[in-house]
From TrEMBL:
The keyword Protease does not apply. One of its GO terms (cellular component) is plasma membrane. It is a single-pass membrane protein. Residues 155-442 form the Protein kinase domain. The keyword RNA-binding does not apply. Its EC number is 4.6.1.2. InterPro entries: A/G_cyclase (IPR001054), Cyclic_nucleotide_synthase (IPR050401), Kinase-like_dom_sf (IPR011009), Nucleotide_cyclase (IPR029787), Prot_kinase_dom (IPR000719), Ser-Thr/Tyr_kinase_cat_dom (IPR001245). This is guanylate cyclase. It catalyses: GTP = 3',5'-cyclic GMP + diphosphate. GO terms for biological process: intracellular signal transduction; receptor guanylyl cyclase signaling pathway. Residues 506-636 form the Guanylate cyclase domain. It is an enzyme of class 4 (lyase). SMART domains: CYCc (SM00044).
C-alpha cells in the first residue's frame, strides 16, 4: 500500500488460505487491487462440514431480540448492496481486458506502411486556388513557402508521430473502436479513475467521440472511443489523397470549436491535451475530439516521464502546448507537475487552425527545425527581450479576419487569447461567405453548394468512377449493337450461350439493286461513305420496330423478329411494317456523290423455324441457321426492284391481322425447292403513318411498274 501523487491510497492485497491442514500449507486464493479477484480453481477451504464460514451470533441472537432490527437492517443493506452492485457493474463494464481486443494496424501490410510513411514525409505546401467571394480564403501561400518547405518538417514529424501506434483501430466485443494508446505503464482501479470514467461516459456531443472504455493492464494502457473511419485529422492533413478545400477546412475548424466549447462547459472544464492527433473524422466527415477527461491515463509519473522524454512522439505532442504550460511543467523526485488551462486549449486550437489553413504540420513553415528545437524556441520566446516564436501565416493564405483570429490564439499573454465563444462569433460571418450556417454540418453545406457537381472530397475517386461508368456504357452500347442484349449479358458473366431453336420467326433480306455497278464507278472512300449512310438509314428505321439486325454484308441486310425474345405471331407484322417503311422512305435517301441516281431496293420475306447461336470466341458473331434463311434469300434474289416479295407462309400469318394488302404474284421456280407461290406486300390499311409515307412515295412516281403492280 502506498499514497499516490494525487493523494489516493493505492492498495494491493493478496488473500491466503490454509487449504492443507495436515501440513499447514497456505495457498493464494485471491488478489485485491480495487477489485477482489479470486484465483480460479483454488477456493477457500473452510473447516466446517458444510465448507462455509461461521457466524458470530445466531441470526436473532440468543434471546431473539435482534430479529426485528435485523430485518430492517437487512432490507437497508440489501438495497445498498443492489446499488453498490449496480454501480460496480457500471464501473466494470468499461474495463476492456487486453485479450478481448483485436488490434488492426495497417503496418501489417508493409507496402501500405511504406506508402504512408512516404506521404507523411511529403507534407509540403499545396497551393489552394479556391477563392471565396469577398474573402480570398483560397489564395496560394506564395513562392516563399514552396514545395520544399514542409518536406523536412513533415519527414521528422512523420517519423516521430507514430500515428498508427497511438491511434489505431481495434475490435472490442465485435464493435469497431478507435484506440488512443497511453504512455502510462499501468493504471490501477482507484476511486479517482472510476470517477473520471463516469464523467467521460456522460460526455455526449456531435463533435465528441464517444468514450467506449479503456484497458488498464500493464503495458497495454489505452482508451477506447467510437470508431472514426477517416482517421485522425493529422493524417488527413498529411495525406495527399484527402481532398481539403476551404469548405472542408472551415467545417473542421467549426467542428473543433464546437467540441471544445462542449468540453469547457462540461464538468471537465478543460481538455488539456488538444492536438490534431486526438481529433478524428468519421464517415460523415464530422470532426470528433478524443482524449478528454481520463487524466489518470495521461498524467505520467516521474519514471514514466523519463522514458517518454526519449520518445520523439512525446516531443511532437508537446508542440501543441501553450508556452506558459511548457514553462510551468516540471518534475520533482516524487511527482510530475502538469499544467492545463482553458487558455492553453485556445493556443492548441490555434495550432490546429494553422495546420488546416496551410496544410502543414505545426510550425511547418520552419522545415529545418525538429520538434525539440521548436519547443526550446517557444520557451525562449517567453523571456523578456526575445521576439515571440509562433507559427507564421502569410497574408493571402486565408481571410484577414481569420488570420487575425489565429494570431490572437498565439498570444503569449493567456488573458489576451479569445474564448471559444468569441471565436464562434468571428467565424460565423466567415461561414456565411461559404454558405454555412452555425448549425449546418459539412454534408449539409456540400449538398447545398454542389448539387450539380460531384463531391470535391472524393474528386479523384468520383472522376474515375464516372469515367469507368461512361466507358462501361459505351462498351455495352457497342456490344449490344453486335449481339442481342440477352446474349451479350450471358457473355459478360463469363458463360457460353447455348444455341437455341425458335419454332417460328420472320426474316427479311434487303439489298440495293445495281450495287456492283455503283461500287465499280466509285472510289473506295465514296463506297464506304455511301454504305455508312445506308446503314445509318437502316438502323434508324429498324430501331423503331421489335426487330433485330443480324448482319449487314455490303449492300445486303438481314433482319429478324421473334428472337431472341419470342413475340407470338407479331414477328410477321413487325417485319412487314419494317419492310414497307423502308420501301416508302427509300426515295428520301440520296447518294452523296451520285445525287441523280435513285436507290432501287429489293426486299424478300419468309417465316419459319431457325436456330440462333453465337459463333467464334475472339470475335463472337450472332448467326441464324436453317432453311428459312435460304428461302428468304430466294425471295430476295427472285424479287423485283422497289417491291416486297414474301412466301405463302408469311402471307398466311399477315392475313390473320386483316390489315395488310397482299397481291398474288404466282408461282416462281426456287432453286432447291421447285415451284413456290409468292405474293407482293403492297401496304397496310388503317396505319396512318404508313399510308402517309405511301402517298408521298407514289407521288414521287419513282417507278411506273410499282403503280402497275398495285392496280
Amino acid at each position: 500500500m502506498y499514497i499516490a501523487s494525487n493523494g489516493d491510497r493505492v492498495e494491493v492485497f493478496s488473500l491466503w488460505s490454509m487449504n492443507d491442514w495436515t501440513k499447514g500449507i497456505f495457498t493464494e486464493v485471491g488478489k485485491y487491487n480495487g477489485l477482489l479477484t479470486m484465483t480460479p480453481g483454488n477456493p477457500i477451504k473452510w473447516v466446517w462440514s458444510n465448507n462455509t464460514p461461521p457466524v458470530n451470533l445466531p441470526f436473532c441472537d440468543y434471546d431473539n431480540h435482534l430479529c426485528f432490527k435485523t430485518v430492517l437492517v437487512a432490507v437497508f443493506l440489501f438495497h445498498q448492496y443492489r446499488h453498490i452492485q449496480k454501480q460496480r457493474a457500471i464501473d466494470e463494464a468499461w474495463v476492456a481486458p487486453w485479450h478481448t481486443l483485436k488490434i488492426h494496424r495497417e503496418e501489417k501490410d508493409k507496402e501500405k506502411a511504406r506508402e504512408k510513411k512516404k506521404m507523411l514525409a511529403m507534407t509540403a505546401v499545396k497551393k489552394d486556388n479556391e477563392t471565396v467571394s469577398g474573402v480570398s480564403m483560397g489564395a496560394s501561400m506564395g513562392t516563399s513557402m514552396g514545395a520544399s518547405m514542409g518536406a523536412s518538417m513533415g519527414a521528422s514529424m512523420g517519423e516521430s508521430m507514430g500515428a498508427d501506434r497511438v491511434g489505431a483501430t481495434a475490435f472490442w466485443n465485435q464493435i469497431a473502436v478507435t484506440i488512443r494508446i497511453s504512455k502510462k505503464l499501468q493504471v490501477y482501479m482507484t476511486n479517482t479513475v472510476m470517477k473520471q470514467a463516469r464523467a467521460a461516459l456522460k460526455m455526449e456531443h456531435d463533435h465528441i467521440a464517444v468514450f467506449m472504455g479503456a484497458c488498464i493492464e500493464r503495458e497495454h494502457v489505452m482508451c477506447l472511443y467510437g470508431y472514426c473511419s477517416k482517421g485522425s485529422l493529422f493524417g488527413a492533413i498529411a495525406s495527399s489523397k484527402f481532398k481539403l478545400d476551404w469548405t472542408v477546412k472551415f467545417s473542421f475548424i467549426i467542428d473543433c470549436i464546437k467540441g471544445l466549447t462542449y468540453v469547457h462547459n462540461s464538468p471537465l472544464k478543460v481538455h488539456g491535451r488538444l492536438t490534431s492527433l486526438c481529433c478524428y473524422v468519421d464517415s460523415s466527415f464530422l470532426l470528433k475530439i478524443t482524449d478528454y477527461g481520463m487524466d489518470s491515463f495521461f498524467d505520467l509519473t516521474v519514471a514514466e516521464l523519463w522514458g517518454a522524454r526519449r520518445d520523439p512522439e512525446y516531443r511532437l505532442v508537446q508542440v501543441w502546448k501553450a508556452p506558459e504550460h511548457l514553462l510551468r511543467e516540471a518534475s520533482t523526485q516524487t511527482e510530475v507537475i502538469n499544467s492545463v488551462s482553458v487558455a492553453g486549449d485556445i493556443y492548441s486550437l490555434g495550432i490546429i487552425m494553422q495546420e488546416l489553413i496551410l496544410r502543414l504540420p505545426p510550425f511547418g513553415m520552419f522545415p529545418e527545425m525538429e520538434p525539440g528545437d521548436i519547443l526550446e524556441a517557444v520557451k525562449r520566446s517567453t523571456e523578456r527581450g526575445n521576439a515571440p516564436f509562433k507559427p507564421i501565416i502569410e497574408e493571402g493564405a486565408c481571410s484577414a479576419e481569420l488570420n487575425a483570429l489565429v494570431k490572437k490564439c498565439f498570444s503569449l499573454d493567456p488573458v489576451k487569447r479569445p474564448s471559444v465563444g468569441d471565436m464562434r462569433k468571428v467565424l460565423r460571418e466567415q461561414g456565411r461567405l461559404l454558405g454555412m450556417t452555425d448549425h449546418s454540418s459539412i454534408l449539409d453545406t456540400l449538398l447545398l453548394q454542389m448539387e450539380e457537381q460531384s463531391s470535391r472530397l472524393q474528386a479523384i475517386v468520383d472522376e474515375k468512377g464516372k469515367d469507368l461508368l461512361e466507358e462501361k456504357l459505351r462498351s455495352d452500347t457497342l456490344l449490344y449493337r453486335i449481339l442481342p442484349k440477352e446474349i451479350a449479358e450471358t457473355l459478360k458473366k463469363g458463360l457460353k450461350p447455348n444455341p437455341e431453336s425458335f419454332e417460328l420467326v420472320t426474316v427479311t433480306f434487303l439489298d440495293i439493286l445495281g450495287f456492283p455497278t455503283i461500287a465499280s464507278e466509285s472510289t473506295p472512300l465514296q463506297v464506304i461513305d455511301f454504305l455508312n449512310e445506308f446503314y445509318k438509314f437502316m438502323d434508324d428505321t429498324i430501331v423503331k420496330f421489335d426487330a433485330y439486325k443480324v448482319e449487314s454484308l455490303n449492300d445486303t441486310t438481314l433482319v429478324v423478329s421473334g428472337l431472341p425474345v419470342r413475340n407470338g405471331i407479331l414477328h410477321a407484322r413487325e417485319i412487314g411494317r419494317l419492310a414497307l417503311t423502308v420501301l416508302f422512305k427509300i426515295n428520301s435517301f440520296k447518294i452523296k456523290h451520285r445525287p441523280d441516281d435513285q436507290v432501287k431496293l429489293r426486299t424478300g420475306l419468309h417465316s419459319g423455324p431457325v436456330v440462333a447461336g453465337v459463333v467464334g470466341q475472339r470475335l463472337p458473331h450472332f448467326c441464324l441457321f436453317g432453311d428459312t434463311i435460304n428461302i428468304c434469300s430466294r425471295m430476295l434474289t427472285s424479287g423485283e426492284p422497289l417491291k416486297i416479295q414474301l412466301s405463302s407462309m408469311t402471307k398466311n400469318i399477315l392475313e390473320t391481322f386483316g390489315s395488310f394488302r397482299l397481291v398474288e404474284r404466282g408461282e416462281i421456280f426456287v432453286k432447291g425447292k421447285g415451284a413456290m407461290k409468292t405474293y407482293w406486300l403492297m401496304g397496310e390499311d388503317g396505319n396512318m403513318e404508313l399510308l402517309e409515307l405511301q402517298r408521298k412515295f407514289e407521288e414521287e412516281d419513282i417507278d411506273e411498274d410499282f403503280a402497275d403492280a398495285g392496280s
